[in-house]
Amino acid sequence: MKALLFAFPGNTALRDALCTRLDLPAGDLELHRFPDEESLVRIATPVDGRDAVLVCSLDRPDRKLVALYLAATALRELGARRVLLLAPYLCYLRQDSRFHSGEAVSARPIARWLSSFVDGLVTVDPHLHRIHDLNQVFSVNSVSVAAAPAIAAWIRAQLPRPLLVGPDSESAQWVEAVARAVPCPCIVLSKQRLGDQQVRVSLPDTAIDRDRQPVLIDDIISTGRTQIAAMQALREAGFGAPICVAVHAVFSNDAEAAIMAAGAARIVTCNTIAHRSNAIDLGAAIATALHDLLPH
Ligand code: R5P
To answer: Which of 48, 169, 208, 296 has the fewest other C-beta atoms within 10 Å?
Structure first.
C-alpha cells in the first residue's frame, strides 16, 4: 500500500511536490490552536496499515513539537504501519554541548524524544558540529540529504566568477563541498560569537582574488548577524556586495531586512523552510531519500 504524506502548516508546497514526484497520495492533517495555545490535531484521512509521513520543518520548534508528537501518536493509534518524519530543517542541534555551567544540552534529549515517537527521519544538512553523524543521537534510521549539489548547480548556472565564503569554521563542511562541486575557489573566515545578536568575523591571511563575486554560504541564517559581520569584513577587505546563500531560511525577527540593509546583493535559500528567498529546490534530492525509506 502506498504511503500517505501529511503536511504541517507551511509545508504543503513541499509535500505536494513530493507527492507528484513519488506518485504518492496526500493525507489531511488538521491543526487547531486553542486560545490558550494548546494544539488539537486531527488526522482526517484513514491510514489503514499504511506508512504515514509527517512533513514538518522544525524551525520555531517550541510551537510545533507537541503537535508533532500528538500527530504521530494519533497516526499510530489509527493504524499506521510506520510513522516517518520528514523535517527538512531539524531543530535544537546547535546546543550540542554545555557551553556554560548548568546549561541544558538540547541535541541528544530532543533526538531521543523524536526517536521515541517516529520510526525514521529524513532531514537536510543537520547542523552537526561535535556530533558527527545523526545516527549517533537518533535511535531510528536517520537520513541526511546534502544541499551542496543543488547549491553548486545554482551557482554554476547564475554566477560566472564566484568566490565562495564560509563565515566560520563550522561552515567549512558546506562551503568546501559546494566549491568542489562548482568548481571554484573558497575561503573560510573566523567567527567569534559574543552573544545571540553579536558576532565578530575576520578574513584569513591569504592572497584572495578580489575581482570575483563573493558568495557567502552558511547552513542557517537565524538573526543574520553572522552574515552581516562577514559582509562587513569582506567590504573592509575591498570586495563587492556579496550574495548570501543559506540552506535553512530561519530568519528570526528583522534578519532578512537587516542583511539587505547591510549591503547584500541578494539572499538566496533552499526550500527547507518556506520563505520568499527560496530559489534552490531540493525536491529531487529529498524525494530520493524518502523513496529509499518507503516500501516498494
Ligand atoms: C552556526 O554555527 C551556524 O552555522 C550559523 O552560522 C548560525 O546559526 C547563524 O546564526 P545567525 O544568523 O544568528 O548569526
So the answer is: 296
